[in-house]
Request: fold
Amino acid sequence: MTVGGLDSLLEDCTKCGLCREVCIVERLGAHSITSFLLGEDNYSSWLCSSCWRCQEVCPQGVDIHAIMMEKRRGEEPPPGHRTNSARVLQSGYALTIGEEINEMRRLHDLEAVELVPAEWINALLRGQEEQEKGA
Ligand code: SF4
Ligand code: SF4
Reply:
């Protein structure tokens, strides 16, 4: 929670709607934090390309990023986010990357990527846990 919380972050917002006008998520027909700023319930604080156009156009200098993070802290992330985080912890990659990636790369005359072995990732995670215990 930020000092002053959501209310203080929203203090300077005049609901002019400029942020929503430029938001790519909104242009694609979905609803981002910019819809929340205009007082709507039908939005997701997780739908965002991190382009920060909303922030750039805001005439009031509202910290839209901080508002988005504040909302995310209080909301359950979409299932895909948890799956990706679990995958990063297991394999070091957010996406499933296997030999099929290299087959696809070969078709495009690209060099093979060297995959980090899962045991290396586990060793790093174990090392971090041990460091935290020792701290
Ligand atoms: S552009 Fe700024 S002032 Fe206008 S609605 Fe968005 S956050 Fe509020
Ligand atoms: S940063 Fe996110 S909310 Fe802001 S304009 Fe870009 S996609 Fe929309």
